[in-house]
Amino acid sequence: MTTANTRAKPNDRYGLVVAGFAILTALASFLVPLGTLSRSFGGEGALLIHPGRILDFTGRLPTTLPDFSSVTLVAWVLILALLTMAGLAFTRSKWTLVAGVLVIVLTIIDLALFVRAIDLIQAPLLAAGTAYRRLPFRNLGPNLWLFLSIFAGIAAIVYSLAQNEARARAFAAARGGLVPVIAMLLSIVVGGVVILILQGVPGNDLHPDALSSLIGKIDLLWFSYSSLLGPALPKFRPSLDLSGIWQSLSLATPLIFSGLGLAFGFRTGLFNIGAPGQIVFGALFATAVGVYVPGPWIVIGPLAVVAAAVGGGFWGAIPGWLKARFGSSEVINTIMLNSIAAGVLVFLIGANDYKFFGQTIHFPFKAEGGEAKSALLGEGARLQNMVELFGLRTGQNQITLMLPLALIGLALGWVFSRGDFRRRGLTAGAAGIIGVVLGLILPKITLNISGSMTNSGLNVSFLVSLLAAVFVGVFLWRTAYGFDMRAVGLAPKAAEYGGVNIGRNTIMAMAISGALCGLGATHYVLGGALTEYRLKQSMPADIAGFGGITVALLGQNTPVGVIVSSILFGVLGTGGLNLDQALDKVSREIVTVLQALIVLFIATRGFLPSSFFKPAPPPKELEPDKPKLEKPVDKVNA
What we know:
It contains 22 helices and eight strands. By secondary structure, the chain is mainly alpha-helical.
C-alpha cells in the first residue's frame, strides 16, 4: 500500500477572512474602546482608548487618574501580534496556531494590567476605610476591543486546526451547528441597529463632536449587550454576588422543561404547541398532591414531581390520540387545548363558590379570599431553594465544596471516558463519588455572601430539569423505543414498513413531550417561584411554553443545546431588567425582539446557501500499487 500525506490544502477564503478580521481588529484599536474606567447608572462611561486616551462621558472623573502606560505598551505588542497573525494566516503558515494563542494570552495580560492600574488607586482608599460605593472608578471592566482580539485569536486557532484533513472533515460534519450561531450574530447586529435608532448616546452633550459620538455609539452597543449578558458573570466586589447567575438559572429552568418537551416532539415528527396547557395541568396535578397528600419530603416531594409529569403527559396524550385515531393535526389540537387548560385553571381557583342546580359548591382546591390562588402546599411537597441547598447565608459563611465537586466529577467523567453507555455512566458515577469525598476532605471556604442571592427563586427543580435532559438523551438515542420514535419522525412510511406501530408511538411521543413540559410546573408551584408555595393564576405558562419553541430551535433539538440556549435566554431575561433600568429609550422588550429575530434567522438557515449543507465527498481510498509487467524479451537466435 502506498502512503499519502493526510494534510489537506487549506481553503484560501477562510484564510483571507481570518487575516482580514485580524487586520480590522488591529486598526480598530484606535477607535474602539479598550476598557471602561467607570460606568454611571444611566450608561455613561469613562472610556480608555488606545494609545492611552481617556474619553469621559460621565463628567465625574477624579483628578488623579490611573497610570495606563503598561496597558498601552502591551496593547502595541498586541497590535503587532494581530498583524503578524494576519500575515501567517494569509500565507497559510502552520505558525498561525501559535500566533492565535499568543494573541489571546496578550489580551488577558492587557486586561489584568488594566484592572491592576485601577486597583492601585482603590486599594489605599479601601485600607483607609472608604466605603466601596464611594470609591472612584467603580463598575470597571473590559470593553469591545479586547473582546474582538480574543475572537480573532480563536478564529486563527480554529483555522489552523482545520488544516488537517481529519479535523477539516470533522468541522465540515458539524457545520449544521453554525446555523444557530449565525442566527445569534445576525440578531445581535439587527438588534444593535434598533438600539442605536431608539437610544441616544448617554452623556453625549459633553463630547458632541462626530468622532466622540461615533465612539460613544460603539460603547452604547457594548454597554447594552454587556448588560444583557452580564448576569452570566459573578461579581466579587464588595462581596461574592452570584444573584445574576442564580436569577438567570431560575428563569431558564421552566424553559429547559418546555424546550426538552418540544425538542422531543420535533425529533419524533410532531409539532407540540400545547406546552402552556401542559404546564397548567402539570401544576394542577402537582398542587393536588401537595395540598391533599400528607407525608415526609422524601416521599411527597418525588410524588408531587411525578404528578406534574403525569398531568402534563395526560394533556399531551389527548392530541396524540386524536392524531393517531382520526389523523387530525396536533398543531391545531394543542392550540385549542391551551385555551381549555386556561379555562380549567380559572374554574378551579378563580372564584370561591359556584352554583350548580341551585346548590353552592366550594372547591377545597381554592384558597380562601378573592385572590385566584390555590391552598398552600404542605411542607413535604416543597422543593428546597438552591441557596439553602448549598448552605449559603448572608454575611460570612463557610460552605462545603461537596456538591460543586460532585457535579464537576460527573461531567468530567462522562466527557473524557470512552466505551459504551454503561461504561461511561460507571466512570462518571465514580468521578462524582470522588468529588463528594474531596468535598468532605477539603476545608470549607469562607465567603462574604451578598444578601441579594437569597432572593432568587432558583430551587431543586433546576436539578430535576438536568435529570430530564439526561432522560431525553438516553431514551431517544440509547433505547429501542427511542429509535422507533425517531424513525417515525424521519420516515413514517419506512418505519411502518419495518413493523413500527405508528399510532402507538404517536400517542406515546406526545405523552412524553407533554410530561416534560408539565414538569415545568415544579419550578413555579413546588419550588415557590411564584413567591409562595401555591398555584396562582398569574403563573407565566404562556411565556415558558412558547419560549420553548425558540429554545428547541436554537438548541438544534438536542438536550445539551436546549440547556445552553435556555440558560442564554435566562441570562438575557435577567439582563433585560438591568438594561431597562439604565436606558430611558430601550426597554426589556429588546429581549423579545432578539428572540423573534433568532427564530426568523434560524428559519432562513442563517441565509447560508443550500450548497453549504451538502455533505463533503468521502475521502479517496488509497489503491494498492499495481505490479509492473515486464516486457517480454525477444529471443534472438544465436
